[in-house]
Design goal:
1 helix; mainly alpha; about 100% helix
């Protein structure tokens, strides 16, 4: 009789042990899934970091190229201004020569 009274307790203990095992398995599964997600996120962050580095390098190259083009543009502008000045001077000289020629004809 003592054994039969103890038997439900053994069943309860077995059920509790089963529930504990299920809980452990579920926790392990959730932990593994969380770790997998963490690793995937880390890999994605590393990939984005590499992409960002490439973009930063390209940006630096573009800035350098723009700076070079700006210097070239400045030189070209200066050269055009010098040419304009020279043309104005030559035009004035030509007009002076024409005026002198016209005066000599008259």
């Amino acid at each position: 009789q003592l054994f039969s009274a103890a038997q439900p307790s053994v069943e309860v203990v077995r059920e509790l042990e089963k529930m504990l095992e299920d809980t452990k398995a579920s926790a392990t599964s959730q932990t593994e899934a969380a770790e997998q997600q963490r690793l995937e996120s880390l890999a994605l962050l590393e990939e984005r970091g590499r992409e960002l580095s490439v973009l930063q390098e390209e940006h630096t190259k573009v800035r350098e190229l723009v700076a070079e083009r700006a210097v070239s543009f400045e030189h070209a502008t200066d050269s055009l201004k010098e040419t304009q000045t020279l043309l104005r001077t030559q035009t004035a000289e030509l007009e002076q020569t024409r005026a002198e020629h016209d005066a000599a004809k008259a």
